Amino acid sequence: MQIYLPIAEVSVNAFLLLGLGGLVGILSGMFGVGGGFLMTPLLFFIGIPPAVAVATEANQIVASSFSGVLAHFKRRTVDFRMGGVLLVGGLIGAALGVQLFNALKEIGQVDLLVTLSYVVFLGIIGGLMFIESLRALMRSKKPGAVPKRRKHNWVHNLPFKMKFRTSGLYISVIPPIMVGVLVGILAAIMGVGGGFIMVPAMIYILGMPTKVVVGTSLFQIIFVTAFTTLLHATTNQTVDMALAVLLLIGGVIGAQIGTRIGLKLKAEQLRILLAVLVLAVCGKLALDLLLQPSELYSLGTGGGH
């Protein structure tokens, strides 16, 4: 069943979009990531222009993240205070990111920037997560292995400390705000919730327990991506509602399934699965950038069509 997307100006199979939304929703529920880092490249692969994919995908992340948060809220695994601090940074970052996105759109470099950002970030994060998860798996397989206590790192020496009871932390608010700003910028430029950066940052930099990280990450993602969508819709008019609705339906159903699957797997297994997925998408995008396009002059097709 083909459906025409007015803003993207392409026809796509409606069931394919529902399926993609569902797949990303499942990942969202399992890993606490908005899933945009996979969905946006998948939309590129089926022919959606990057500028439209980025702005519209932010919309879908809001719904699948909201659906995921409800499931975590019932289990009391959301640190609202930490989420609020991350959110302050996230909103500042999103506003900066949309400005940068618009500036690059003016000079026609936005598609290249979006794809390059994906390759760089997915490559670095996927690699680091994969190595770390392998180590964690090895440790858990050793008989009598005692998990090491977290040492105090540089984060604990900074001023402006605050108690985060749900996470069992007493740390400075500066690192969470900085993580939030970075995630906000990425949300605007790459159409992602930023969970694939926020989740590792919350575990390794802030020292939060894994079970609280997923729900808290989704809570922050809802507001940052909603704000980003609003900015894109008002400044760029690149939000395709028909595309967003189909992705939304799939995403909300998928998030509920994903949350259930996530509970059955160990934290180390979840992290290694996520790392493999991230690296696979990174590889496909890098290949697309390096290989010569089939139509070198697809832009100048004015008169003959």
Number of helices: 10
Strand order of the largest sheet: 1-2
**Helical content, roughly?**
55-70%
Give the amount of beta strand, in percent. Answer: 5-15%
The SS-based structural class is: mainly alpha
What is the CA–CA distance across the termini? Answer: 25 Å
Radius of gyration: 19 Å
For the report, how would you describe the main beta sheet?
A: 2 strands, antiparallel
Tally of distinct domains: 1
Low-confidence stretches: 295-305
The tally of strands reads 4
Explain this structure.
- This protein has 305 residues and is mainly alpha-helical.
- The protein has one domain (2-141, 153-290).
- It has ten helices and four strands; from the N terminus they run ββαααααββααααα.
- It has helices spanning 14-31, 36-45, 50-74, 80-106, 110-141, 174-190, 195-204, 210-235, 241-264, 267-290; strands at 2-5, 10-13, 161-164, 169-172.
- It has a two-stranded antiparallel sheet with strand order 1-2. The chain has a two-stranded antiparallel sheet with strand order 3-4.
- Strand 1 and strand 2 form a beta hairpin.
- Helix 6 runs antiparallel to helix 7.
- The chain starts with a strand and ends in a 15-residue tail after the last helix.
- Residues 295-305 have low confidence and may be disordered.
